[in-house]
Inverse folding.
């Protein structure tokens, strides 16, 4: 089970990476609603990546 948990943690870190990078650059910490900003940035980033993928596949 430790191997599966490690894989899940790595996958989660990958999907949260765009928001984490932006929050780190802007200096936003947990007390400043980092989770909300990270969720917003991740939504924009992954939606953009998905739209670009659809454009190239269709």
């Amino acid at each position: 089970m430790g191997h599966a948990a490690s894989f899940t943690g790595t996958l989660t870190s990958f999907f949260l990476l765009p928001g984490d990078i932006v929050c780190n650059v802007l200096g936003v910490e947990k007390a400043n609603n980092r989770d909300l900003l990270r969720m917003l940035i991740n939504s924009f980033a992954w939606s953009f990546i998905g739209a670009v993928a659809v454009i190239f596949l269709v």
Notes: The mean pLDDT is 90. Residues 23 and 29 are 7 Å apart (CA to CA).
